[in-house]
């Protein structure tokens, strides 16, 4: 894989790349719609991601090239930049902008990107690009940022340079990911615990519904407001800052303060989901994938029935998974209303699972899903370890 990328680099730039880097994508295993409620999430890095090959030039120009898209950019080095349209190179350009605004001296660079994260899959290709660029610039220019600094810089790029209101989970997971470990992360404090996650005979199946998610943003904002209403009601008698400051047992004692059924259902999901993340860390540490799988199903049921952010497409995938003995657990992952599901699938039966799920889904929905297999991989770094994939350069 790396050799072919280096050959492509020479074809494009007429010289050798001097450095190469890789940053993964991520998937959230459990802990959904609780990051904005002071709760815990459990993402992991996957073995798809973004490759970046670099060398310096003497022209004081940033040359951005990608093997995924034809669009290119040659941008003169100057003091600061602003987003240009919807172009892909805004992500690395935003990182360079932060370094320059922060007083770091940069040079002209010839940069070649290649991503094997499936486009539109919800596996966080933008965070992967941001983090690999930040890591590369930090290394190449000895900028002195910590890995956590790079996470915060990448989030700044997403929020302030690009203009997308995302949290910090994606950037954190792709930076701090560890092979065969999930990260139990408090998105509020950024405290985290790396939890041993031995998949054994299983792989992560990431299933893209291929449904457009036009409702997701408006419904997301609705849920944030509904959670704020629940919190406000509970604060009449409880000194808490977030819904996830309490557990299900405590909520049961005070749920009478929440006067409407809808707001009660939203709070019930949030608080129980946070409890599930804690339980997930415990059963994974005990190498009990069966129990973890049941928590995944419970998470999906709660997101479907109490939080109402699933949909026919996601429910169809999870419904099929429940009938397949080679699946330990499955759930929607991400904002919902389309996007992706994640499942624990026996490695030996993955191909059969994929073909049968595709047939089942097509019969119910009318078009095919996209299904990918991944392991849990390392976070960002130089390319000095094997990384899977490498199709179709």
Automatic annotation (TrEMBL):
Q: Which residue range or ranges hold the Galactokinase N-terminal domain?
A: 7-55
For this chain, the family text in UniProt reads: Belongs to the GHMP kinase family. GalK subfamily.
Q: Which PANTHER family match?
A: GALACTOKINASE-RELATED (PTHR10457:SF7), MEVALONATE KINASE/GALACTOKINASE (PTHR10457)
**Binding, ATP:** 66, 120-126
UniProt-annotated site: Transition state stabilizer, residues: 26
Q: Which residues bind Mg(2+)?
A: 126, 158
Alphabetical list of Pfam families matching this protein = GalKase_gal_bdg, GHMP_kinases_C, GHMP_kinases_N
Catalytic residues as annotated in Swiss-Prot or TrEMBL? 170 (proton acceptor)
Domain named GHMP kinase C-terminal is located at: 281-361
Q: GHMP kinase N-terminal domain: which residues?
A: 90-177
Q: Does the keyword Transcription regulation apply?
A: no
User: Which subcellular locations apply to this protein?
Assistant: Cytoplasm
According to its UniProt entry, one GO biological process term is: galactose metabolic process
What is the role of this chain? Catalyzes the transfer of the gamma-phosphate of ATP to D-galactose to form alpha-D-galactose-1-phosphate (Gal-1-P).
Positions contributing to substrate binding: 32-35, 220
MF terms from GO for this chain are: ATP binding; galactokinase activity; magnesium ion binding
Which enzyme class, named as a word? transferase
Q: What is this protein called?
A: Galactokinase
Pathway as given in its UniProt record: Carbohydrate metabolism; galactose metabolism
Known SUPFAM superfamilies for this protein? GHMP Kinase, C-terminal domain, Ribosomal protein S5 domain 2-like
Q: Which domain of life is it from?
A: Bacteria
Q: Which residues form a coiled coil?
A: none
Matching Gene3D superfamilies: 3.30.230.10, GHMP kinase, C-terminal domain (3.30.70.890)
Protein EC: 2.7.1.6
């Amino acid at each position: 894989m790396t050799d072919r990328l280096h050959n492509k680099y020479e074809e494009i730039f007429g010289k050798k790349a001097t450095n190469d880097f890789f940053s993964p994508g991520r998937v959230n295993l459990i802990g959904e719609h609780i990051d904005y409620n002071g709760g815990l999430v459990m993402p992991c890095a996957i073995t798809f991601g973004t490759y970046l090959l670099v060398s310096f030039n003497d022209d004081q120009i940033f040359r951005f090239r990608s093997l995924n898209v034809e669009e290119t950019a040659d941008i003169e080095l100057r003091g600061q930049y602003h987003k240009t349209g919807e172009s892909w190179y805004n992500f690395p350009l935003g990182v360079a902008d932060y370094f320059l605004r922060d007083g770091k001296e940069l040079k002209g660079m010839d940069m070649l990107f290649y991503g094997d994260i499936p486009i539109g899959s919800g596996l966080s290709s933008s965070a992967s690009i941001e983090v690999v660029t930040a890591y590369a610039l930090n290394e190449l220019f000895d900028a002195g940022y910590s890995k956590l600094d790079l996470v915060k810089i990448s989030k700044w790029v997403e929020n302030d340079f690009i203009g997308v209101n995302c949290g910090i989970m994606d950037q954190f997971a792709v930076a701090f990911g560890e092979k065969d470990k999930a990260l139990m992360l408090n998105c509020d404090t950024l405290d985290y615990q790396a939890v041993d996650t031995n998949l054994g005979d299983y792989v992560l199946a990431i299933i893209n519904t291929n449904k457009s998610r036009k409702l997701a943003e408006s419904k997301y904002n609705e849920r944030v407001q509904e959670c704020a209403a629940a919190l406000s009601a509970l604060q009449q008698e409880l000194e808490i800052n977030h819904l996830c400051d309490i557990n299900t047992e405590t909520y049961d004692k005070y749920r009478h303060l929440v006067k409407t059924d809808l707001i009660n259902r939203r709070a019930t999901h949030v608080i129980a989901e946070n409890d599930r993340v804690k339980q997930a860390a415990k059963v994974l540490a005990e190498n009990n994938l069966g129990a973890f799988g049941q928590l995944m199903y419970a998470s999906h049921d709660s997101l479907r029935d109490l939080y109402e952010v699933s949909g026919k497409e996601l429910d169809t995938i999870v419904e099929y998974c429940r009938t397949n003995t080679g699946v330990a657990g499955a759930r929607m992952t991400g904002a919902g209303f389309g996007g992706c599901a994640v499942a624990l699938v026996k490695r030996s039966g993955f191909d059969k699972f994929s073909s049968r799920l595709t047939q089942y889904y097509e019969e119910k929905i009318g078009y095919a899903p996209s299904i990918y297999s991944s392991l849990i991989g390392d976070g960002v770094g130089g390319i000095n370890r094997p990384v899977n994939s490498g199709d179709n350069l």
